[in-house]
């Protein structure tokens, strides 16, 4: 189907498909089993110029946007969303710099990310602050030209592997969400250590780790935007990044659909391929329809964001909500198509089902996405806007 992709997006898709088939497929089961980070693939991504598809050309990127990122993440996630996440989570950690970085900050950090020299990570979540992002307890107390960070961030994707961390911390505990600020913290800064590495259900090739700040001194030049803007920057970052999670979910669903269709043509029961049974055809038809609907919504959301519109929260949340629910349904059905074999680790669909689950949870649970959508609808109605 023609999705109206630009020449560059077609090229990104082709390059990613080749990398996914030739380089990722042979190693995905190993990294899923071992729970190790796939360092070997990072050079492949860098050599293919994939690390900067969404970064401005003047900082060494390809000059693309959220749509280009979505195309890349979808294609890589068809084969392994855990490995693809090294790039997708870097985008999440990089968006605050793209959105609010000074020219100097962009020059210093975006160039390294675009070249593939550094991964990035975003540090918002804490043990007691997940959906309630405004409830973070990490503090950044001013001390002359420095801020002193104390606190622990939890479940940080690329934690330990990234060199660049965008961290949300409270600079004024009395001001609620307006008392948060955002800092770029380099790996190796004294007082910044890594804690527990998580042992997860899915996306096991991705590193998920605690970030521990103990009297960590960060120069004021590392602040993004102005003091007190941290929560706003975090929310705007999530508006940009959620279509990326949606694309990851779409890739997982599309990958599972491909596996299911292929298997249904090979597997014979009652003397014929199982795809010749109408029950199987209906199941595959529903899976394929949901995948196309998710793709249409994600591409619409990504293109809307890239158009420069300020009004992006609702469509971004819709894309993430719909695509991640689709991924869960489609991967569950793919396991069903494989029957008993689908439940076994020799076949890829059980991994896809495990990987799909996180997309309903991270970067805002789907309950939070519904809240964002619902509030936007009410605001639009109050402003007299009709759908
Ligand atoms: N864009 C711009 N501004 C936004 C915004 C957005 N997307 N979302 C909220 N804001 C603003 C609000 O307009 C409000 O501004 P004022 O102080 O001027 O009124 C301020 O931010 C606080 O917003 P709100 O009162 O809605 O904050 P809540 O604490 O109720 O939280 C939700 C809102 C639940 C939407 C937010 O906490 C959230 O997104 N949580 C999920 C976090 C998440 O995704 N975590 C996953 C980990 S990150 S990988």
Could you explain how this protein is built, in words?
This protein is α+β, with helices and mostly antiparallel strands and 387 residues long. It folds into three domains: 113 residues, Orthogonal Bundle (Butyryl-Coa Dehydrogenase, subunit A, domain 1); 110 residues, Butyryl-CoA Dehydrogenase, subunit A, domain 2; 145 residues, Butyryl-CoA Dehydrogenase, subunit A, domain 3. It is built from ten helices and ten strands. The mean pLDDT is 98. The site of coenzyme a persulfide has 21 residues, from helix 6 and helix 10.
Series of H and E elements = HHHHHEEEEEEEEHEEHHHH
Q: What is the CA–CA distance across the termini?
A: 28 Å
Radius of gyration: 21 Å
| Main β sheet profile | 4 strands, mixed
- CATH homologous superfamily designation of the largest domain: Butyryl-CoA Dehydrogenase, subunit A, domain 3
**Approximately how much helix is present in the residues?**
40-55%
Bound molecules: coenzyme a persulfide
Q: Low-confidence spans: pLDDT under 50, at least 5 residues? A: none
Strand order of the largest sheet: 1-4-5-8
The CATH class label of the largest domain is Mainly Alpha
Oligomeric state of the chains in view: single chain
Shape, principal axes of CA atoms: globular
